[in-house]
Amino acid sequence: MRDFQDRGFEVLALPLIEIGPAPDIAAVRAAWRGIAGFAALMFVSGNAVTQFFAQRPVDAAELTARAWAPGPATAQALLAAGVPFALIDAPDGDAPQFDSEALWQRVAVQVAAGQRVLIVRGAGGDGQGAGRDWLAAQIQAAGASVEYVVAYVRSPPLWSAAQSADAQRAAADGSVWLLSSSESIANLPRLDWSAARAVATHPRIARAARQAGFGVVCESRPALAAVAAALESIG
What we know:
By secondary structure, this protein is of the alpha/beta class. The protein is about 35% helix and about 20% strand. It has ten helices and nine strands. It has helices at about 1-5, 25-35, 45-55, 70-80, 100-105, 135-140, 160-170, 180-185, 205-210, 225-235, and strands spanning about 20, 40-45, 65-70, 90, 115-125, 145-155, 175-180, 195-200, 215-220. α3 (about 45-55) runs parallel beside α4 (about 70-80). The longest helix is centred in the C-terminal third of the chain and has 11 residues, at about 225-235. The two termini are about 15 Å apart.
């Protein structure tokens, strides 16, 4: 938020996803206690890192497996959690997108038959694990096995009356919405979005925004400079 303010943008933050703790903390701690058996851990987001490390048992072994991150924000969260830089794998900073496909290009050579990979992810409000299975399919095709642990729960936010009023205004007054999650779009209030404009940081997010009814949708790489340029072009 501060980065965009420093570039001269007027910014209003409206959270579209609420993050909560794991529905089964015992499962997270069990994953920690068995961490030595994994060749790699893939963290789907920075929230996955934060919530997974928050439940680390005091007697857990040190993380010596590779730590996979789909983008720089997740990689930074791993560094903040104390994971050595040498263990972290993430797409290059100039990658067209920060997603599972870009990550796989980086880590495919690491995967061997018989290895175990743990995917640390979130769950919907029902507590069931959710997310794309594309990366898991690639890992399994390479002969390794995939296991999952849910480290946090995502749910729609409870907005105040003021936040709801802000959203209604921003849907009609020419504001540009910066959208970085397809799931967050599903949590938008039921409004007429035909006059609204959006910058989306992935083609899947852009498709979801168009399906939600946004009148103008601009796609951008998920990097600060690229997003700022997109905001300027659409503004």
